[in-house]
Amino acid sequence: REQLDFGTSVGIFERFEMGIMVPFTVYQKARQPGKKMGKVKGTGFGNGIWYGKGIILREEDGYPVSVAATLHTHWPTGNTLAYMAYDGFGAETRGLVTKEFGAFGVAGSLGFYFQPKETIFNYVDDHKLTYRAAGYFAPNRDTWRVEAELVGATRLVAPFKKKAQRPLEFLLGGSYHMSTRNRLIVALGVGLSDGIPAPEYRLVVGIA
User: Fold this and answer.
1) What pTM was estimated for this model as a whole?
2) Which of 85, 118, 154, 207: CA 20 to 30 A from 196?
3) Which pLDDT tens digit goes with each residue over 58-73?
4) Residue-wise over 13-31: b if at least 16 C-beta within 10 A, else e?
């Protein structure tokens, strides 16, 4: 599958951020029937996302770690027949913690993702526990950084019980500031489990 994510965001008082994002599937092979046994489309929109982020603590203010919280709301704007979206609204709340050690840094997050229950053959997709762990190296924060990250999830009501319901992905990439406002982001991801929707591989290229 090839996918584009369109989005925009605004920062408020250097402590808050709000934004929207709309994923668009440019092409997918669509070899299997849709989850409602209808025809699968090779292109289409996913559910739109509105998100907000707030910084609670900052290391630069004298705290031992930086702490932030996010809320992502998912709106039913996508194609539900083609594995691009689900029916109804969803929301994920996430807590994030980061710690810097000079040019190095570590970060982690834990979240709860609530969504309508979907059953696709013997696969159940519903509320999830999400988690991330990352480390980065940024000798010049105004120019570039490299980062490695683990991204995973599991069913909230039956955590880590079935392989298909515990996706795990490893990403390695970096970013380069092309100007004071724009940066280039490149990353390569590989699936570490058979969980859905962990990919065999993923190439990420973006401008933020």
Assistant:
1) 0.85
2) 207
3) 999 999 999 999 999 9
4) eeeebeeebbbebeebebe
